[in-house]
């Protein structure tokens, strides 16, 4: 039976709207002061049922509690964190709303509010998507005054506020990390008070990530109610979770961090980035799978394309790239089965280290005396596509670009310009910088047969000033992101064949804002396969495997100095979009043969890994396993990895998920037969008896 299509219904008697998705319902109503308030978010309800949901009990009658009601969809007053903080010319910093109507469409709802005295209009947007339980929310803010009137100042403008149902306790799941240690999953009981998740770095960041999950402390991977939200934004952000002593749990979030404001001139409007919410009843695994499906259907620009096996030359040559060594590497890469050859940093300007040349995007004539065309032609002759590393947002002080345009970087008058990695940040809020970036990138793509760009960003913002913008200087925190997005959007529109990877020193900017215009994310500069197991697990909580670039590199690893078997390194990388980043010129003949066999095997399973349904099977006694089931159920892939464990510990079979209990499955390698019911209830034994052993099992459902 087909799923019920999303819909919006209105109950005028209760001034209540019900948004229905295939597996959930969300209700909001207007209170007596025309303030939109949350009513319900959970399993499906009818309109009549939603209308019968009682109002929340107010806290004890106290002059020390907020006079405002609970559960505001856009919090503008009270003692908790505010979603919208306008500052009007007369000093007023509180909005009072008059409801101005609503619009119901095929894909959602818009609520129109006007301030009762000041020239501010706000639209609350709720968007639904076919086949998805995700509810996408954002604001449009409009200064309705006449030209010449004073601008409004917005000290805070979040995209949405969310409210969890009343529960006896709450648990927060979120991501922490650092460079080379991104996407570390944290699950912690929420304390009473405010918990702030934020990035003040100008990008979504390695240290935190703009999504969270809420449950009552009892949810597991496959059971329990989970409410989750994710902000589609690629710059600084803040989400504030408020767990009050009265038992209320709300959170509000949007772009920017504390201390930033922006002016809204008369006659202008501004949109906030989408803040997406999802309710699922099947635990964290069901929540992740719902996000994966939504991102594939409604976020990625080209979700159905099979991602190629990549070879990247960075770890092989560093900045010492030449036409000769790149051709030599390309020949080895093609021989092991790579389909896309990417030349990384070092091909341009006076770029033989990270000290100089960044910003001078012309081909280095010493390394490439005849330009890039001979290398590109050779890569194509070998049957591979060609990709190139770029870092358009950055500049070295030792560069022709900086000497010509020192005012183009983020800076403050009379303050030092801090370099990180010997580079400064170009201000993509400036139209001239955006035009320059698009011009040279467009010319690069027009003049060369380039199929793929790795768009990198290798430092955070400091001295984030824009002297020429005067009182609008803080807009750079927002407009820089819009500038970056606009350049990528234009390049993809003008070069439809182009594919783009988002990178920021690893996973510093892997978010829904970038994935809406790129094909995959480089999730960490740490390619150590042991460390990547946890990194990839955290990434998979929200993002699908088809967006997760993962490389096999040399052993010992350049960063951790850990030595690992080649097979183990491949099996970890095969859990996403497989790539190779080692120095193939130094691999032994045996290693090259094994690599070729494993690349061939990956190509046989990647349709299931990249486009199938993922199940995390957990970690026990140092053994971690993950499973993928093809959309038609015909193929199942299980990857398992063994980390050091106690010799006397139990070794349990892995219970699989998502199979047909009535079906029989054949092991494609051993020929053994397995009943689906047994795999689901008893499990599958994995032959992982030594440290850093790994396995890949392919099961085919017998028709």
From TrEMBL:
Checking Gene3D superfamilies in the record gives: Aldolase class I, alpha-galactosidase from lactobacil brevis, Golgi alpha-mannosidase II
Q: Which GO terms describe its molecular function?
A: alpha-galactosidase activity
Q: Which Pfam families match?
A: Glyco_hydro_36C, Glyco_hydro_36N, Melibiase
Report domain Glycosyl hydrolase family 36 C-terminal positions: 624-699
| Reaction equations catalysed | Hydrolysis of terminal, non-reducing alpha-D-galactose residues in alpha-D-galactosides, including galactose oligosaccharides, galactomannans and galactolipids
Q: EC number(s) on record?
A: 3.2.1.22
By what name is this protein known? Alpha-galactosidase
Q: Which organism is it from?
A: Streptosporangium brasiliense
Its taxonomic placement starts with: Bacteria, Bacillati, Actinomycetota, Actinomycetes, Streptosporangiales
């Amino acid at each position: 039976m087909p799923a019920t299509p999303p819909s919006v219904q209105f109950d005028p008697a209760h001034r209540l709207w019900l948004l229905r998705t295939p597996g959930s319902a969300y209700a909001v109503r207007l209170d007596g002061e025309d303030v939109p308030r949350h009513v319900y978010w959970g399993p499906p309800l009818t309109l009549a049922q939603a209308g019968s949901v009682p109002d929340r009990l107010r806290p004890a009658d106290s002059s020390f509690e907020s006079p405002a009601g609970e559960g505001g969809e856009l919090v503008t007053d009270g003692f908790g964190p505010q979603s919208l903080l306008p500052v009007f010319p007369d000093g007023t910093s509180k909005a009072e709303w008059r409801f101005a109507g609503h619009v119901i469409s095929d894909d959602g709802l818009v609520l129109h509010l006007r301030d009762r005295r000041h020239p501010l209009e706000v639209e609350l947007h709720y968007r639904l998507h076919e086949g998805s339980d995700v509810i996408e929310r954002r604001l449009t803010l409009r200064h309705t005054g006449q030209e010449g009137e004073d601008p409004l100042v917005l000290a805070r403008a979040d995209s949405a506020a969310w409210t969890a149902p009343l529960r006896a306790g709450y648990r927060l799941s979120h991501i922490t990390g650092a460079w080379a240690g991104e996407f570390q999953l944290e699950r912690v009981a929420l304390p009473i008070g405010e918990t702030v998740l934020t990035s003040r770095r100008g990008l979504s960041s390695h240290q935190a990530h703009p999504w969270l999950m809420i449950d009552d402390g009892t949810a597991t991977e496959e059971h329990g109610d989970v409410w989750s939200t994710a902000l589609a934004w690629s710059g600084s952000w803040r989400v504030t979770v408020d767990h009050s002593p009265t038992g209320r749990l709300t959170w509000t979030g949007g772009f920017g961090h504390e201390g930033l404001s922006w002016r809204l001139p008369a006659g202008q409007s501004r949109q906030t980035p989408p803040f997406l919410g999802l309710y699922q009843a099947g635990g964290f695994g069901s929540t992740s799978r719902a996000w994966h499906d939504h991102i594939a259907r409604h976020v990625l620009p080209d979700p159905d394309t099979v991602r190629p096996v990549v070879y990247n030359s960075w770890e092989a040559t560093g900045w010492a790239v030449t036409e000769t060594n790149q051709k030599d590497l390309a020949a080895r890469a093609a021989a092991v089965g790579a389909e896309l050859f990417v030349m990384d940093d070092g091909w341009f300007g006076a770029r033989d280290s990270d000290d100089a040349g960044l910003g001078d995007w012309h081909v280095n004539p010493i390394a490439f005396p005849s330009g890039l065309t001979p290398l590109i032609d050779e890569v194509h002759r070998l049957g591979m596509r060609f990709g190139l590393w770029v870092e358009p947002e950055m500049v070295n002080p030792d560069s022709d670009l900086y000497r010509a345009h020192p005012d183009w970087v983020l800076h403050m008058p009379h303050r030092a310009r801090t370099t990180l990695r010997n580079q400064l940040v170009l201000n993509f809020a400036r139209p001239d910088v955006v035009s320059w970036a698009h011009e040279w990138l467009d010319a690069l793509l027009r003049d060369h047969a380039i199929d793929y760009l790795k768009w990198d960003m290798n430092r955070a913002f400091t001295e984030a000033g824009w002297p020429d913008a005067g009182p609008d200087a803080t807009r750079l925190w927002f407009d820089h992101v819009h500038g970056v997005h606009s350049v990528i959007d234009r390049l993809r529109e003008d070069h439809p064949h182009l594919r783009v990877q988002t990178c920021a020193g690893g996973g510093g900017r892997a978010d829904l804002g970038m994935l809406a215009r790129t094909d995959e994310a480089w999730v960490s500069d740490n390619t150590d396969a042991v460390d990547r197991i946890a990194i990839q697990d955290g990434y998979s909580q929200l993002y699908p495997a088809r967006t997760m670039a993962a490389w096999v590199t040399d052993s010992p690893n350049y960063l951790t100095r850990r030595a690992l078997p080649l097979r183990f390194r491949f099996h970890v990388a095969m859990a996403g979009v497989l790539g190779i980043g080692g120095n193939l010129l130094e691999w032994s003949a045996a290693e090259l043969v094994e690599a070729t066999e494993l690349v061939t095997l990956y190509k046989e399973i990647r349709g299931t890994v990249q486009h199938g349904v993922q199940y995390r099977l957990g970690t026990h006694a140092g053994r971690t396993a993950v499973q993928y089931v093809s959309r038609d159920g015909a193929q199942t892939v299980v990857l398992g990895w063994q980390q050091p464990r106690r010799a006397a510990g139990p070794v349990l079979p892995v219970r699989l998920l998502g199979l047909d209990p009535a079906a029989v499955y054949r092991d494609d390698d051993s020929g053994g037969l397995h009943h689906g019911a047994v795999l689901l209830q008893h499990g599958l034994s994995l032959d992982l008896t030594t440290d850093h052993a790994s396995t890949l099992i392919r099961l085919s459902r017998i028709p």
